[in-house]
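User: Hi! I have a protein structure encoded as tokens and I'd like to know what sequence might fold into it. I'm fairly new to this, so please keep things simple.
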């Protein structure tokens, strides 16, 4: 099974290639944590070894190909929120210019890191250790949630949206079997697996302890998002409502608290905003390749689209995270300061699911169910929390849905969701020419959903090694 066979060798070679191309000095991620030595379910014999294995699964989420850099960056750069400046260091050029091919290093690294994370989760789920069964079941629940989270990202990167559930998704692999050569499961089957894993997680998941450990309402929030993307709006609304009403989580309390929330690099225990985030600290981080340093306090390669910046009102607190500045070649630009700790000892944790998104899921789901008053309640609660001078929205029908989508864009900007929202909706990417921005061909200033590059190629190395994938590459690659 090529997905896992020799994965470490391929991952090291991939990092070497990326390092050469990008002039990066980051160290091999896999070697950072001693917990990563646990790689098979047979090595998990008790609660302690299972906890170590789970630490390794969490750590893999911080890999450069996952939340450490690529997922948050690509989700905005493929869309209309950000651009690569002219004096860049060579990072993400194929992504921004839509020139990636079947052996693109970014999409290959995402694939490899994702299936490594799935393997680590599988080893935990399939283990049969002795000891405190309740504690072991709780650790397995977190592994189910991690596997579901990674499959959710994979299905949205390498497959079309939920409109055609029989379309090609990604291979579902639930155990480590090097002889296995899995075919791509259908889109519907992958979503069913995600839902099944999240329901399994809920059966024994623990209560909230901090933002860097998956807990009950983080799982429910991810389940609401799964229902939302699979167009089960009634279930999405019910699940999101339970999180909002019963989790005890709150939005930031005031305008000043919003900026402080993003500036705080520590794991949270106060139940404000973030249900789950990927941990990064002074010891466990991606060095000079941290996400924050790609935006600010480091490489400064990527900036906020100027038209997008102007869509925020002057009193919108989210605008305070976009700073007026200049690129390295002296052109005016708006600097993304959502991750302000790139140059600090403690690093920014990467948000995976926040209460604000749960409000938006509830709002759009209600609007699509024609429950306008419910949709407006959730929309106005969030929007007026961010902009206290905002006059409450009073809309219905498609104008209401369009406004919710616009609020999603503003709220989740630079967290990696924008291209997947546009894909979910089948909408065209409409990009602008930014002063100081790297030039792109005119054909990629407007990218229709039907364009084959709106979904990623299955890595060439996977297809070459797995004969069952030979006829399953995404079209035109």
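Assistant: Happy to help. Inverse folding works backwards from shape to sequence: for each of the 477 positions I chose a residue that suits the local structure. Here it is:
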């Amino acid at each position: 099974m090529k997905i896992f066979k020799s994965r470490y060798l391929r991952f090291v070679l991939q990092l070497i290639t990326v390092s050469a191309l990008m002039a990066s000095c980051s160290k091999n991620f896999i070697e950072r944590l001693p917990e990563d030595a646990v790689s098979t379910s047979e090595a998990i014999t008790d609660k302690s070894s299972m906890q170590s294995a789970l630490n390794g699964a969490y750590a893999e989420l911080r890999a450069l190909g996952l939340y450490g850099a690529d997922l948050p960056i690509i989700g905005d750069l493929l869309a209309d929120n950000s651009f690569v400046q002219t004096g860049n260091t060579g990072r993400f050029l194929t992504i921004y210019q839509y020139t990636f091919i079947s052996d693109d290093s970014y999409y290959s690294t995402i694939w490899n890191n994702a299936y490594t994370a799935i393997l680590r989760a599988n080893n935990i789920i399939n283990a049969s250790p002795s000891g405190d069964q309740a504690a072991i079941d709780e650790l397995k629940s977190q592994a189910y949630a991690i596997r579901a989270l990674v499959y959710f990202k994979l299905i949205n990167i390498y497959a079309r949206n939920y409109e055609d559930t029989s379309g090609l998704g990604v291979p579902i692999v639930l155990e480590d079997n090097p002889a296995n050569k899995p075919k791509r499961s259908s889109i519907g089957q992958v979503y069913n697996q995600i839902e099944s894993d999240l329901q399994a997680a809920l059966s024994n998941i623990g209560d909230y302890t901090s933002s860097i450990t998956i807990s009950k309402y983080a799982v429910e929030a991810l389940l609401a998002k799964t229902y939302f993307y699979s167009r089960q709006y009634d279930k999405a609304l019910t699940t999101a409502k339970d999180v909002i009403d019963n989790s005890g989580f709150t939005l930031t309390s005031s305008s000043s608290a919003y900026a402080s929330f993003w500036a705080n690099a520590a794991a949270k225990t106060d139940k404000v905003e973030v249900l789950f985030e990927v941990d990064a600290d002074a010891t466990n981080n991606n060095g000079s390749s941290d996400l924050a340093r790609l935006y600010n306090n480091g490489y400064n390669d990527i900036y906020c689209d100027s038209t997008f910046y102007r869509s925020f009102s002057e009193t919108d607190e989210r605008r305070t995270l976009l700073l007026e500045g200049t690129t390295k070649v002296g052109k005016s630009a708006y600097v993304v300061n959502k991750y302000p700790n790139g140059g600090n000892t403690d690093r920014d944790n990467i948000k995976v699911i926040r209460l604000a998104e749960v409000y938006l899921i509830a709002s759009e789901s209600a609007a699509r169910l024609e429950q306008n008053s419910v949709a407006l309640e959730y929309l106005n609660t969030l929007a007026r929390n961010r902009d206290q001078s905002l006059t409450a929205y009073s809309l219905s029908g498609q104008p209401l849905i369009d406004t919710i989508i616009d609020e999603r864009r503003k709220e989740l900007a630079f967290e990696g969701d924008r291209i997947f929202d546009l894909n979910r909706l089948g909408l065209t990417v409409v990009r602008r020419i930014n002063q100081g921005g790297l030039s792109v061909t005119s054909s990629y200033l407007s990218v229709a959903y039907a364009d084959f590059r709106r979904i990623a190629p299955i890595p060439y190395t996977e297809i070459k090694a797995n004969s069952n994938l030979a006829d399953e590459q995404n079209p035109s690659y």
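A useful reference point when you look it over: DSSP finds 17 helices and eight strands in the chain. Feel free to ask if any position seems puzzling.
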